[in-house]
Structure formats: structure tokens, C-alpha cells
From TrEMBL:
Cofactor: (6R)-5,10-methylene-5,6,7,8-tetrahydrofolate; FAD
Lineage: Bacteria, Pseudomonadati, Pseudomonadota, Alphaproteobacteria, Rhodobacterales
Protein name per Swiss-Prot or TrEMBL: Deoxyribodipyrimidine photo-lyase
Gene: phrA
Coiled-coil zones: none
One BP term from GO: response to light stimulus
Pfam families: DNA_photolyase, FAD_binding_7
Gene3D superfamilies associated with the record: 1.25.40.80, DNA Cyclobutane Dipyrimidine Photolyase, subunit A, domain 3, HUPs
PANTHER family reported in the protein's UniProt record: CRYPTOCHROME (PTHR11455), CRYPTOCHROME CIRCADIAN CLOCK 5 ISOFORM X1 (PTHR11455:SF9)
PROSITE patterns noted in UniProt: DNA_PHOTOLYASES_1_1, DNA_PHOTOLYASES_1_2, PHR_CRY_ALPHA_BETA
Organism from which the protein derives: Agaricicola taiwanensis
Length: 472
């Protein structure tokens, strides 16, 4: 009787505990991936993550074939698909790596129950977080709301385990029917946008491992400073690979474990933020819909359709915000510093509900993640755990001057401003008439006037916060 390995957010062959467990049982293995469009579960993927998933599954199929395991793709309601396959093949067990957000946990429990009813064994493994969210607790046994004590407590649990070896070759693959990946039409046909993404990214395990080693060799030195500069390639860009589990946090941790100093410490701390956000998601149902701090339920957000659209299209008149939003449209990714600036701008300058921004990112980011995206949006809005306080409002002009001092990031993504000198490129309305003319810029025509005045917007945001305080 075969063992089914059900792949989800762990699309890799290396360091895959569920797969290793199944190979150790010495049985034939069926690798399964389920596309559940019917219950659209746990949350329908966005356009960018669908694009990524296609490449990731293609790559997984190749890697699995190398160890003699066919990947079976099936589409349908998850529980029915897993149950049918288990019955059809007379499977002895189903193994998977655990997921942690409450909706996913609930579904996994339902599948486990269905398997128990069939008499099929279920094996679940820890694979995608360095520390199980339920293992990291306060002294009183509760969950954490603040990052630093969380990370301290996590690290006290001991060093993360070493990555597991590749499974050995299987010689007796079973023939099981499944869908063709192309039938799923995860990628839009003939899209200029999709072509651009293919030039920037290589989804799959191989691409992830290459990115990791390139980062460790070339960019880890200097990371602590360069990570805040959108004009430089200062970060690892591992986020979409981690999102789909093409690489495990254990593999990343061990690639840098012997490195000392602020760069390596900072990088490990960012992995810690990922752990923290999953911990928050594990303990908060519907993180993408519900404020972690309920007092924000009464926040006077504005219905501001036109401003939301200007923000989405990168036409707010604030160059650093627009550059970020266009980087997102063009590449499916945005630099972390600019994500923070753009999110703060939507929420605090335009007073648009953070959920609108979260949804846009969810649809557009190749790394759109059920824990990291809502947790970071709530962080930016002030409604999250250990969030930036609402009254701390980023000044988008100053942020641009500080983190894109030569203006090269803006020039790249907002080419109509390329002729402006730094630092005024971050506030085109301060540039004299003649200079603007020489650069071919006509405000209100070739590039928009600011949608809001920074100072006035700041006052309004602080007033809204006062209203919230008075009402709670
Ligand atoms: P590196 O600097 O190389 O960091 C290494 C890894 O650490 C990242 O791949 C990521 O897994 C983790 N990490 C880094 N920064 C953070 C952070 N602030 N929070 C949690 N984990 C972090 N990240 C996502 O993976 N998915 C999202 O959907 C997402 N949405 C975001 C939305 C907003 C509004 C903001 C402000 C941040 C968001 N982030 C999200 C966090 C962060 O911007 C990205 O993880 C980071 O930019 C990815 O680039 P990198 O891999 O080069 O990062």
C-alpha cells in the first residue's frame, strides 16, 4: 500500500520531513498537490501567486521525478480529493507538513478526520517554521504580542535542527492519473506582465537555492545597512521562495549559522519576524480581516475610491510611493522599506482602511503570504501586534531622501521624473519652473500633483486618531 505525501506550502524535495518520513516507510510514494477552487481555500490565490505556483509546481515535478516519484495534480474540494485518492490507491498513510493559520489548521483537521474514518494513518511534520508557534509561550503559557520577548523565548528553545538530506531514489513509481498543469491556467496567456515576471524570477527549489548561495556569498556582508536601500540589491529576495516553501527556514538558518556580526544577526532577526508573524496568525483568526487591537474597529476610515486607485496605479504625486507601487506592478515584489512607506501612506495620508491595501498586495505580490501580509499591514496601520504606533507618520519626502538619496530607485520606476536632480526628485513641486521644463516634466500633466498635502494629511490623521481615542 502506498503513502501519499500531500504537498501544500512546501514545494521542495530537500529538507522535506513529510517526504523523508514517507520514504523511510519503504512503500511506493504518491506526491499530491490539490488545487481547491471550489471552496477557494484557504483564501483564493492572487494573480501573482498563481503565476508563481505554476512555475513552482513545474519545478517540483522535475525534482520529484529525479527521485522516481510522480507528482499527481488534482483539482477539487480538498477533502474529497484526498479521500478519493486514498481510496482509489488503497493508501496506507497520508503525510504532510503542517500549516499554521487557523483556517488551514481547521481544514487539515477535517482531512485528518476523514482519513481516520477510512482507517488511513495520518502523519504530520514540522517543516516550515523554525519554531512551532504553540511551543513558544510566555512564562504563563500564553502567546506573545511583542517581537523581542517572542524571539528571545524562541531562541531559548535551542538551535534549529539541521536540514534533512534528499530522499533516496524510488524505483517503483505507481501510475496514478491526474491533471495537466496547463489545464489549470494559472498563468495568463500572452501577457506582457507575465513575461516581465519571468525575466525577474525563477520559481522553484533550484532558483531558491541559487538565490540563497548568491546572497550568502555576495550580499550578506553589509546587509544590515543595505537592506534599507531600495536603490540597491541589498536583500536576499528569498520571500516568494519561502512563501511556497521551495526552501526551508532551516536551510537558510544553517547557511548563515556560523556567521557572526551585525549583518548575520540582522538577517536572522528578519527570519524571526517571519516566525513572529506566523505566531500572531496562529493565535488570531482571520488576521486579514480582523484588527488584532479591537479598538481599531471604530477607526473612521474613509471611502476614498479615487485615492485608492491613484495609489494602486502609482500616481499619488509622491515619487517614492509611486516608484514602489509601480515596482509591485512590474515585478510582483516591492522593497521592504518602500512597502512600509506605501502602506503608511495609504492608511495615514489617505485614511483608507488597511484591508484595501492588504487585498491589493495579496493580489499583486509574488510573496503574498497569509501571515506576513496581513501582519505587516496591521503593523503599518497601528492595529497589529507590536505595531508602529498610529501617530508615527512617515514623511514620504524625507523617507525618499534618506533611503533613495541619489533618486535612482525613483528614476528606474518613475521614468518620467528621470531628468530631475536629487534630492528634489522626491518633491518635484519644489523644483523651479525652468528645471522642470528642462527635465520635460509638467506637473499635473506628465506627472501628478500630490494627491494630498503632507502636512494637512498628517493633521487629519492625528485628528482621526483623537476621534478614535475619544470613542474608546
Ligand atoms: P530579506 O531582507 O532578505 O529577509 C529575509 C526573509 O526574512 C524574507 O524573505 C522574509 O521571509 C523575512 N522577512 C523580512 N522582512 C520581514 C518582515 N518585515 N516581516 C516578516 N518577515 C520578514 N513579506 C512576505 O513574505 N509576504 C508578504 O505578503 C509581505 N507583505 C508585506 C506587506 C507590508 C505592508 C510590509 C511592510 C511588509 C511585507 N512583507 C511581506 C515583509 C517584507 O517586506 C518582505 O518579507 C521582504 O521585503 C522580502 O524581501 P527579501 O526576501 O529580500 O527580504
Amino acid at each position: 500500500a502506498p503513502v501519499i505525501v500531500w504537498f501544500r506550502d512546501d514545494l521542495r524535495v530537500g529538507d522535506n520531513p513529510a517526504l523523508v518520513h514517507a520514504t523511510e516507510a519503504g512503500r511506493p510514494i504518491i506526491a499530491l498537490y490539490v488545487l481547491d477552487l471550489i471552496s477557494e481555500f484557504p483564501r483564493p490565490l492572487g494573480t501573482a501567486t498563481r503565476w508563481w505556483l505554476h512555475g513552482s509546481l513545474e519545478s517540483l515535478r522535475t525534482s520529484l521525478l529525479r527521485v522516481g516519484i510522480p507528482l499527481v495534480l488534482r483539482c477539487g474540494p480538498t477533502i474529497d480529493v484526498v479521500r478519493d485518492l486514498a481510496e482509489e490507491t488503497g493508501a496506507e498513510a497520508v503525510a504532510w507538513n503542517r500549516r499554521y493559520d487557523p483556517a488551514a489548521v481547521a481544514l487539515d483537521n477535517e482531512v485528518a478526520n476523514a482519513m481516520h474514518d477510512l482507517g488511513v494513518k495520518v502523519v504530520t511534520c514540522a517543516a516550515n517554521l523554525l519554531f512551532e508557534p504553540s511551543d513558544v509561550t510566555t512564562k504563563a503559557g500564553g502567546s506573545f504580542r511583542v517581537f523581542t520577548p517572542f524571539w528571545r523565548a524562541a531562541l531559548q528553545r535551542g538551535a534549529p535542527r539541521v536540514p534533512l538530506p534528499l530522499p533516496s531514489d524510488r524505483s517503483n513509481p505507481l501510475k496514478v492519473s491526474g491533471d495537466e498543469l496547463s489545464e489549470w491556467t494559472l498563468r495568463p496567456a500572452q501577457s506582457e506582465w507575465a513575461h516581465k515576471l519571468s525575466r525577474v524570477w525563477q520559481p522553484g527549489e533550484q532558483g531558491a537555492l541559487e538565490r540563497l548561495s548568491e546572497f550568502v556569498d555576495r550580499r550578506l556582508n553589509g546587509y544590515a545597512r543595505a537592506r534599507d536601500r531600495p536603490d540597491r540589491e541589498g536583500t536576499s529576495r528569498l520571500s516568494p521562495h519561502l512563501r511556497f516553501g521551495e526552501i526551508s527556514p532551516f536551510q537558510i538558518w544553517h547557511a548563515v549559522r556560523n556567521r557572526q556580526g551585525e549583518d548575520a544577526d540582522r538577517f536572522r532577526m528578519e527570519l524571526g519576524w517571519r516566525e513572529f508573524n506566523h505566531h500572531i496568525a496562529f493565535h488570531h483568526q482571520d488576521l486579514h480581516e480582523r484588527n488584532v487591537q479591537p479598538r481599531f474597529d471604530a477607526f473612521p476610515w474613509r471611502e476614498n475610491e479615487s485615492s485608492l486607485q491613484e495609489w494602486q496605479e502609482g500616481r499619488t504625486g509622491y515619487p517614492i510611493v509611486d516608484a514602489g507601487m509601480r515596482q509591485l506592478r512590474e515585478t510582483g515584489w516591492m522593497h521592504n522599506r518602500v512597502r512600509m512607506i506605501a502602506a503608511s501612506f495609504l492608511v495615514k495620508h489617505l485614511l483608507v482602511d488597511w484591508r484595501e491595501g492588504e487585498r491589493w498586495f495579496w493580489n499583486r505580490l509574488v510573496d503574498a503570504d497569509p501571515a506576513n501580509n496581513p501582519a505587516n499591514w496591521q503593523w503599518a496601520a497601528g492595529s497589529g501586534a507590536d505595531a508602529a504606533p498610529f501617530f508615527r507618520i512617515f514623511n514620504p519626502i524625507r523617507q525618499g531622501e534618506l533611503f533613495d538619496p541619489e533618486g535612482s530607485y525613483v528614476r528606474r520606476f518613475v521614468p518620467e521624473l528621470a531628468g530631475l536632480p536629487a534630492p528634489q526628485i522626491h518633491s518635484p513641486w519644489t523644483v523651479g519652473e525652468q528645471r522642470l521644463k528642462d527635465a520635460g516634466v509638467t506637473l499635473g500633466k506628465t506627472y501628478p500633483h500630490p494627491v494630498v498635502d503632507h502636512k494637512a494629511a498628517r493633521e487629519m490623521a492625528l485628528d482621526a486618531l483623537k476621534d478614535l481615542r475619544n470613542s474608546s
